[in-house]
């Protein structure tokens, strides 16, 4: 696996790989599907440490009338069911947007090993922007975080969605 970028985050080296970009392309496709359905365009893909896709999902809070139906939560549920285990140790969650507090809490509980996200979320982000659940020493699990993967495309998708939504009466 070729490393395309490296930076230091939370005291240890984190790297973005070609696999991260490929998984982000799939997450973006899920986000576009969410947008087409009128949902906030967030997509997520959960993969094994080796890059095997275990689950993929998009925001479906409106469709399911469920405030917890975020892409990350739905991907966790699918993967846990598939693995027949609520612990998803060593997995990688790729999300178009920085996970919120609820999603980060679930990711910590599931023992996800790595989170890769596109655009930061200054209002809700809990992987370093507003809060940092990924490295909080009071929690019993740390998650490696890689941010900024295809950030402009992810940011543009969500910005355009809200821009268009504000125009529509």
Give the strand content: 15-25%
| N-to-C SSE string, H for helix and E for strand | EEHEEHHEHEEH
Structural class by helix and strand composition: alpha/beta
Distance between the termini: 48 Å
Radius of gyration: 15 Å
Tally of separate helices? 5
Could you tell me the number of beta strands? 7
Residue share in helix: 25-40%
Average pLDDT, all residues:
90
Sheet with the most strands, sense and barrel status: 5 strands, mixed
Low-confidence stretches: 1-13
What does this structure look like?
- This protein is α/β, with parallel strands linked by helices and 169 residues long.
- The protein contains five helices and seven strands.
- The protein has helices at 18-36, 61-64, 71-83, 101-110, 151-167, and strands at 3-9, 12-17, 43-47, 53-58, 92-97, 114-119, 144-147.
- Strands 4-3-5-6-7 form a five-stranded mixed β-sheet. Strands 1-2 form a two-stranded antiparallel ribbon.
């Amino acid at each position: 696996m070729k490393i395309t970028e490296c930076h230091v985050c939370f005291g240890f080296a984190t790297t973005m790989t070609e696999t991260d970009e490929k998984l982000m392309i799939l997450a973006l496709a899920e986000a576009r599907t969410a947008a087409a359905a009128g949902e906030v365009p967030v997509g997520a893909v959960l993969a094994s440490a080796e890059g095997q896709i275990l689950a993929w999902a998009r925001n479906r809070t409106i469709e399911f009338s469920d405030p917890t139906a975020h892409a990350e939560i739905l991907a966790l549920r699918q993967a846990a069911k598939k693995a027949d285990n609520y612990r998803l140790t060593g997995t990688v969650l790729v999300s178009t947007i920085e996970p919120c507090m609820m999603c980060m809490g679930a990711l910590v509980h599931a023992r996800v090993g790595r989170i890769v996200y596109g655009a930061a979320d200054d209002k809700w982000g809990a992987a370093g922007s507003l809060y940092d659940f990924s490295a909080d020493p009071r929690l019993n699990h740390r998650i490696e975080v890689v941010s900024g993967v295809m950030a402009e495309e992810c940011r543009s998708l969500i910005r355009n969605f809200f821009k268009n939504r504000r125009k529509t009466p």
